[in-house]
Write a structure and sequence with these properties.
The complex is a heterotetramer, with two copies of chain A and two copies of chain B.
Chain A lengths: L10 H7 L4 E7 L5 H14 L3 E5 L10 H12 L4 H10 L6 E4 L2 H5 L8 H10 L3 E3 L9 H10 L2 E6 L5 H8 L6 E4 L13 H10 L6 E4 L5 H9 L4 E4 L1 H8 L6 H26 L11
Parallel strand pairs in A: 1-2, 1-8, 2-3, 3-4, 4-5, 5-6, 6-7, 7-8
Helix pairs in contact in A: 2-4, 2-12, 6-7, 10-12
Chain B lengths: L1 H8 L2 E3 L2 E2 L2 E2 L8 H16 L5 H13 L5 E3 L1 H7 L2 E6 L9 H14 L4 E6 L3 H12 L4 E6 H6 L1 H9 L3 E5 L6 H15 L3 E3 L10 H9 L1 H14 L5 E5 L4 H7 L9 E9 L16 H4 L1 E5 L2 E5 L24 H8 L3 E7 H15 L5 H13 L6 E6 L7 H10 L14
Parallel strand pairs in B: 5-15, 6-7, 6-9, 7-8, 10-11, 10-15, 11-14
Antiparallel strand pairs in B: 1-2, 2-3, 4-5, 12-13
Helix pairs in contact in B: 3-5, 5-6, 5-10, 6-8, 10-12, 11-12, 15-16
The chains are: A alpha/beta, B alpha/beta.
The complex binds pyridoxal-5'-phosphate (2 copies).
Chain lengths: 289, 421, 421, 289
């Protein structure tokens, strides 16, 4: 794993700011097996991911669309456990820092009593750089935030299209690592275009000096370009990668495709960044969904 | 309503919690909607702004059929040698207590200017109640229902469709209630600005557990008045089944301050109280009796879960009790000793079903039959004056009861030869 | 009750007749039982001896769920541009007005020292009501039901069995209601000394038509009070469906002296009003509208019959209206112009079913849907303030409605795609 | 048809008293066809019937057991009408007078308006001697009774086991022809023994000076003997004859069997009468049902 903590507050901030425009990739650990996940993560790393989110599967993934739900079901059916997950993380050798994405109950239940600390400590020990919890809004986050602070992990918050006004200030005041900008209302899942809400959100967030990465629906290099052009520091891609995994007849087939996809997305992001530098005045028109 | 709030404060920490339970564990996108709802709940429900509660009560009377009777059960009283009264929520429009909540929430959504209603349903009782309320109040309505439940609860699907609701089958996982809730949350996260999600029990993120309880609290308020009139005093004990716990909290709420009244929440003991962690299965849904603390569907509460935090699949002969979670307020009331968690197994519930049908001429829901099963088993512990909530009618359960009865040798069942040909 | 008797005398010749209708056309063996019943009816029902009527009313409140609401139908009122109120007999225990009568008669049988209850049933509504009442009052109960009806109304068979009643399938003839009545009369003729026959409508020999009417009259009495309270005056018209006519007479009775209130009895027009004498079939059961005078099941009344006196088989999409006779009192009230006989066909009734389900969130019985179909067709004739009796709920009719809706192009139906798989 | 009205009030009374102990037989007209009925009635007449009841089928035979219900259904299915019935009667040549047994609605509907007179007039014209209406109790019988009186027909009343006290007096005061003593509660149908109620009823009726014939359940010569021994003037047999008709493969097979059955029953009745004359003191013990 890389260690670039110098001018930045954390590995994660460094991974995004230092590699601008950043590519953040997500896959579900254990889909279809932890061994395969290892190969996939390394492929994503090679393809140019600057930060990698690994999903620890939970039986009730209320924030996920059908693609990631199916991945989680496959991972659970393969017997993926938190301990297996941490061992995978320990085993991984990537340039990009790693984040865990999971639901709050998985974090609470890791120790012998419901408590967030054992999970956070284990995550830090395994070499993870941060945590994202899709069912943990800022209001309920203090215990986990404290534990992350104590263990040098970032706790990533999601900014939704509905996050506005005072609440936006309150959430932004807690952000560490980067702000996960939810591109549209709804759940995760590859979409064919970039939502108009993305532009609104990025505009609303422009006054906050934190890295912003946009996820939910990004699936192609061209989306990545548009999003970066709209002012994001990074793009987050998940379902599009899982589609590749799910549609491979043989798990090992997916490795090259994942690497290629990551490269395409990274190229797209770079294209967006170049447009920005070429023509900084030209704000692109939001595309209608 | 102000006195109720004071009473609540005795055991609520304020905000959205009951002791350690409750909270708002939902995706960020939903938080503004929950705050809007909390605000509407406080204004309309707690403060009766714009006469909301007056309209709610009028509609529950004229459309819903409130008050429901409190009936002395003559033959059960004789059988158990004590006074047994039944609260007849089975007579409410739609056939269960569910309408109290569904109508309250749909009306609230209307006051809030929402344009669309969504809800999850398991057995279909909450779905049909919501569809009825939405038709009555002219709101478009979509119901999410697991494919398995769609297939086994077809009459309820038809009822919802007749009321003009869309029914969306959910194919994920075991395709039952848990998955339907997940899917409804996903819809809500997509459409939250114009849509209200009518949660079907005292579960979910704050303010749902309190709000649903307040809509259901009329059950216990009526019982208090009715038993005073009929028996001249408060009961020694009050018994209600508990799935998510809405009929339970609705029945108990008014009695919580009455320390002399024992409160029994009867859960589904299923076929065994053991959890099979390996396969993620609990052959019961006795959450209060056997569950551990965790977060599910937006709230911290007692749950049926494996050691690593995966939620297990609950099982009960009664679809409406078949849920791995329970309302956070009940978890708290159990922790502080105010509510006694109990359970009866499938056989006892089936016997309870048959017994009430034969002795009193009331065919209870299989959910409610658990409370009646407990009455049979433990009547000696319940004092001289007992109230049991009959949360719904059993018409929906006939096929299940026939099938399950044929498999067993049940003491209270009639000989049910099926009329063939 | 004395005022009611006086009122009756205005159109009853005394004894057991209403004008030319009524009487006691039964086998000699039953006459002493009818006299015993008449005597019990006069003492217990009319004179409240031993507090019979008090007990009846108490039980109808606590067990049955009376009073049922009178609900303003907001959306129908808007649609028809007049005030429309619905009497919610669908909320009565068992799901129809039938319990008013069944409980009254079973209780009377108990007061008379009878040991056993028998009843006929067609769709199963009267059978289930009787089985519930018998279970409630601890009386052994046997129900006769045509084999055809047993097969197509299985849920009601199960409900009766769950309540501990025996269900005896009748194989004769078309094996529906008419044959079930014949068979119940045969049982009664055999066991008359210790058995009471609970007739299911205002039909049969005296004193049944009057007695059943009196047990059902609570419907109209409540409406009178409720509409006065809600609308400040009596309605311009009252609409009820009519099969045998028990919900009809129950609804109308209190209004008969109010000349300003128009009374509409809506029968099943079926698929056509013509009779096929050759095959002994009427594709309707519009007895009041098209029938001729004759004697059936113990009374002189209007009937569907061939010219030579054979009773024809009636037909309606609604099993509960599917009867070739009608109560003698209704025949008389029609003859003297006090009640207007009307009918709507199967299609209009199905549309009425769908319309109420979608607009008001109430799934009505197919029987009651005829009254709602009439409201749609003729609302302009009904004045500014209309009360419609919703005699029962439609849960029992879901399968039929689905099937019949699929065959037709109904204006008010939702698109009902069936969820397969 | 015979005409024996001399010392008796009517053909029917004469047929019973004059042939003591009398045999009264019943079959349903039109079962399985009116032609067959003609042959059957003549066979019953030859076999020794003193009075013959012919059923005019009605769709709702509430007083009949399964045997006669089935006969009625066959007759209706064969298209039996009142007019066909009367033509059959006109065609018949029997020693025994004929009675029609039918339900009240059939009588009411015979004319163009609901009225009993057209039926009664046609019955008299066709040569019938009386009418039995199982769903017409004495209380409702006045119109038909008047019409019968005016046309010289007997209206037969049934005395049930439940007919007692004042009601019995009232009914008996209206009896003409004979009193049809219902042997047991319930419906018609062949039974294996004589009901105890028969003895009670005959005892109750002993004070009335009218001929008494007992029906409902009589099926064998021995029953006939017992009943006559118990004090009846005649026995009435129906279902046992219909069983013979229903079980014949070919309708014409039934003719001889019916004649033989009538003869057996008449012999049985005579045996009963002889016992009475032999030993007038000896009242037989009621058999337990
Ligand atoms: C009749 C009835 N009772 C009880 C329940 C359980 O729900 P709760 O525990 O929220 O009352 C249900 C749920 O469907 C129900 O239909
Ligand atoms: C709901 C309902 N309404 C009406 C009827 C018709 O009967 P009646 O005309 O006696 O009211 C029935 C009969 O089953 C019924 O179930």
């Amino acid at each position: 794993m890389s260690d670039t903590s110098s001018e930045y507050d954390s590995d994660i901030e460094a991974a995004i700011r230092g590699n601008h425009p950043a590519l953040i990739t997500y896959i579900t650990a254990g889909d279809p097996s932890l061994e395969d996940t290892k190969a996939y993560v390394e492929a994503l790393d090679r393809g140019g991911s600057d930060l990698i989110e690994l999903g620890l599967p939970f039986s009730e993934p209320i924030a996920e669309g059908q693609t990631i739900q199916a991945a989680i079901n496959r991972a659970l059916a393969a017997g993926t456990t938190p301990e297996g997950f941490f061992e995978l993380v320990e085993d991984l050798e990537t340039e990009a820092p790693l984040l865990v994405m999971t639901y709050y109950n998985m974090i609470l239940q890791y120790g012998s009593e419901p408590d967030v600390r054992p999970f956070v400590e284990r995550a830090a020990e395994a070499g993870l750089s941060g945590i994202i919890v899709p069912d943990l809004p800022a209001e309920e986050a203090d215990p986990l935030r404290d534990a992350c602070d104590d263990n040098g992990l970032d706790l990533i918050f999601i900014i939704a299209p509905t996050t506005e006004g005072e609440r936006l200030d309150a959430v932004m005041s807690r952000v560490s690592g980067f702000a996960y900008v939810q591109a549209r209302l709804g759940t995760t899942g590859a979409r064919a275009n970039v939502s108009g809400a993305t532009y609104d959100s990025l505009a609303r967030l422009s006054k906050y000096d934190v890295p912003k990465a946009v996820g939910f629906g990004v699936s192609e290099g061209d989306h990545a370009a548009e999003i970066i052009e709209a002012g994001a520091d990074g793009v987050i891609v998940g379902s599009a990668l899982i589609d590749i995994i799910a549609s491979s007849d043989d798990p090992s087939d997916a490795v090259d495709a994942l690497e290629a996809k990551a490269a395409e997305l990274k190229r797209g992001a770079r294209r967006g960044a170049e447009t920005l530098t070429d023509d900084p005045e030209d704000t692109p028109e939001p595309e209608q969904p | 309503m102000s006195t109720e709030r004071e009473r609540d404060d005795e055991y609520e920490s304020g905000g959205g919690t009951f002791g350690d339970y409750g909270g708002q564990y939902v995706p960020e996108a939903l938080m503004p909607a929950l705050q809007e709802l909390e605000d509407a709940y406080e204004r309309y429900v707690l403060e009766n702004e714009d006469g909301f509660m007056d309209e709610f009560r009028d509609r529950m009377r004229d459309f819903g059929g409130r008050p429901t009777p409190l009936q002395r059960a003559d033959r059960l009283s004789e059988r158990y040698d004590r006074e047994v009264y039944l609260k007849r929520e089975d007579l409410l429009h739609g056939g269960a207590h569910k309408l109290n909540n569904a109508l309250g929430q749909v009306l609230l959504a209307k006051y809030m200017g929402k344009e669309r209603i969504i809800a999850e349903t398991g057995a279909g009782q909450h779905g049909t109640a919501t569809a009825m309320a939405a038709a009555h109040l002219d709101m478009p309505c979509e119901i999410y229902m697991g494919r398995t439940d769609v297939n086994r609860q077809r009459p309820n699907v038809y009822r919802m469709r007749m009321n003009g609701a869309e029914v969306n089958p959910v194919e994920a996982g075991s395709a039952t209630l848990k998955e339907a809730i997940n899917e409804t949350m996903r819809d809500w996260a997509t459409t939250v600005e114009r849509t209200h999600y009518v949660i079907g029990s005292v579960v979910g993120p704050h303010p749902f557990p309190r709000m649903v309880r307040d809509f259901q609290a009329v059950i216990g308020e009526e019982i208090r008045d009715q038993i005073r009139e009929k028996a001249g005093r408060l009961p020694d004990s009050v018994v209600a089944c508990a799935g998510g716990g809405s009929n339970t909290m609705g029945t108990f709420h008014a009695f919580v301050p009455d320390e002399g009244v024992d409160l029994y929440a009867v859960e589904a003991g299923g076929s065994s109280l053991e959890i099979d962690e390996e396969n993620g299965m609990a052959p019961n849904s006795a959450t209060l009796s056997t569950g551990t603390d965790g977060v599910l569907h937006g709230a911290m509460t007692k749950l049926l879960q494996a050691g690593d935090g995966q939620i297990v699949e609950s099982h009960s002969v009664s679809a409406g009790l078949d849920y791995a979670g329970v309302g956070p307020e009940l978890s708290h009331l159990v922790d502080i000793g105010r509510v006694t968690p109990t359970n009866v197994d499938d056989d006892d519930a089936l016997n309870g079903f048959h017994r009430l049908s034969r002795l009193e001429g009331i065919i209870p829901a299989l959910e409610s039959s658990h409370a009646l099963g407990y009455l049979e088993e433990e009547h000696d512990e319940l004092g001289d004056l007992v109230v049991v909530n009959v949360s719904g009618r059993g018409d929906k359960d006939l096929e299940t009861v026939l099938e399950e009865t044929e498999k067993r040798d049940l003491e209270a069942a009639p000989e049910i030869e099926v009329f063939d040909g």
